[in-house]
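Lab notebook, bench 4. The sequencing result for the construct came back, and we need a structural model before the next group meeting so we can plan mutations. Quick request posted to the team channel:

Model the 3D structure of this chain.
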Amino acid sequence: MSGVKGKSGRKPKSYHRQQTTLIIAETSPKAALYLKNVVIGDVKPESAIIDTCKFIINQDIGSPTQKTILSGDKDNPLQPFVFILPGGKTVTAKELSNADSGKT
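Done. Here's the predicted structure in token form:
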């Protein structure tokens, strides 16, 4: 050997995970900008690029989760679906349907 110390071969998973996380964090703002331009109408939407952008953003900030509430009481009746939005705000399915129909 030529006196080189250290491990040879494949780098540990933590190195790859760190590099992947860094790349996703760097590209997430560009993905959001592309989606914004699609919504505005400045860019022709391409489904493969849109799917990739959504994946990158979900990997960076997380995707909205759906929580099921299985109990209710007299003052707070059972609402089976509560959507947790980015930032921690929760919205019920009833609130979403009221917003869609123009009710408040």
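The helical segments are 13-40, 47-61, 93-101.
Will bring this to the meeting.
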